[in-house]
């Protein structure tokens, strides 16, 4: 499992690791790769029941971070990018931002 040590901000790393583990455990990478939130709603306000499953799993993990709406949206956008483009592309994107 990826440890995301390339993310220098510890809070961001914790959020991404928590979400990555949750999606892996509920086996929803394929779903996330193909999912697009409803226009104007984003991940924060999406009505997909699969997001409820992911949230419940995130909250139940020992490394739960207690997301706000915006931190959940940010985390899911990051994981959505990973699902669509792969971990190496995400790593390159994150490293180019710093």
* Class by SSE composition: mainly alpha
Number of E-type strands: 0
Output the radius of gyration: 13 Å
Distance between the termini: 24 Å
**Unreliable segments of 5+ consecutive residues:** none
Helix content: 55-70%
Number of domains: 1
H/E element string? HHHHH
Percentage of β-strand residues: under 5%
Tally of helical segments: 5
Principal-axis shape equals globular
Sheet with most strands: none
What's the overall average pLDDT, rounded? Answer: 90
What does the model show?
There is one protein chain. The chain is mainly α. It has one domain. It has 5 helices and no strands. The model has no long low-confidence stretch (mean pLDDT 90).
Give short descriptive properties of this protein.
98 residues, single chain, 0% strand, mainly alpha
List the helices and strands and how they pair.
Blueprint (H helix, E strand, L loop, with lengths): L9 H16 L3 H6 L14 H12 L8 H17 L1 H10 L2
Helix pairs in contact: 1-3, 1-4, 4-5
């Amino acid at each position: 499992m990826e440890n995301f040590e390339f993310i220098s901000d510890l809070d961001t790393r914790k959020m991404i690791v928590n979400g990555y583990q949750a999606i892996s455990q509920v086996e929803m990478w394929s779903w996330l790769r193909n999912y697009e939130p409803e226009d104007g709603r984003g991940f924060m306000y999406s009505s997909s029941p699969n997001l409820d499953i992911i949230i419940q799993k995130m909250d139940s993990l020992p490394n739960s971070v207690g997301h706000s709406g915006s931190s959940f949206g940010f985390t899911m956008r990051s994981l959505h990018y990973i699902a669509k483009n792969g971990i190496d592309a995400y790593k390159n994107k994150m490293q180019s931002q710093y």
